[in-house]
Amino acid sequence: MNGTINIEKELLSFIPKDDKLITTVLESMKYSLTAGGKRVRPMLALEFAELCKGSPEAAVPFACAVEMIHTYSLIHDDLPCMDDDDLRRGKPTNHKVFGEAAAVLGGDALLTLAFETILSERAVKLNGFEKCVKAGRLLAQCAGAEGMIGGQIIDIESENKSVSADHLKIMDSKKTGELIRAACLLGCISAGADEDQMKAAEKYASCIGLAFQIVDDMLDVLSDEATLGKPIGSDKDNNKSTYVSLLGIDECRRIANELTDQAIESLSAFDGDTSALKEFAEKLRDRKN
Fold this sequence. Notes:
The chain has helices at residues 7-13, 23-33, 40-51, 56-77, 94-98, 100-118, 121-127, 129-143, 148-158, 165-175, 177-191, 195-222, 225-228, 234-237, 243-247, 249-266, 275-286; strands spanning 87-88, 91-92. It is mainly alpha-helical. The protein has one domain (7-286): Farnesyl Diphosphate Synthase, CATH 1.10.600.10. Helix 4 (56-77) crosses helix 7 (121-127), helix 7 crosses helix 8 (129-143) and helix 11 (177-191) runs antiparallel to helix 12 (195-222). The protein is globular and about 50 Å long.
């Protein structure tokens, strides 16, 4: 993936400067934003921008915005009223460090900062008003009630219920898939991609997004806490239906392989070097944490 841009440094550059009166919320934001992770979404945005003959540097504000949305969602997911998790990426969750109120506010602050970033002077200077507005609208749709948040409420209301694999697919296409779709399309928007490229990017995102979640369900059964960086078996403990509980490990592995092949095939719509995105799809399928 694109190695010339330091995403960690770029993310911090958009955090407001220290203000003693709001130190707690700023530290809450920084704590989760710099807690590590695969940076799947920003890397996808930068890679698709470059693949569509755009400038990865111009796509940086878009890439950072989608990662801020993702990070805020993790802070809220870990809260006692949601998944009630104590660990995230091997570290205490935000609310365990700062308290529930500061964690809620830190998440809210990252959510709003995402749109401040995507509409920032820097973003407009690099991409123009029209692309920034298009990007902001897309990200809002993918993160909102019809996207990630919609998937989250489906997830919550599915607890202690027997649901079908199709039900899970709809839920995950929203909860996980929509932000991955946003990331890929934000890179395309920054680069001024054509309609065929946008459709191909959507196909790639859809396939790796579902594969990502299926592998997540598998790791919740097959991995260990030290490798995964968070408690394992939480899906079973919370009586959640998963692809593994419905289909079994072998079928999950087959579907993940099939989706990865489809994602790679979708890249034939681009005439640039797609090797990094091919390798990335395979890496997501084969990951251990």
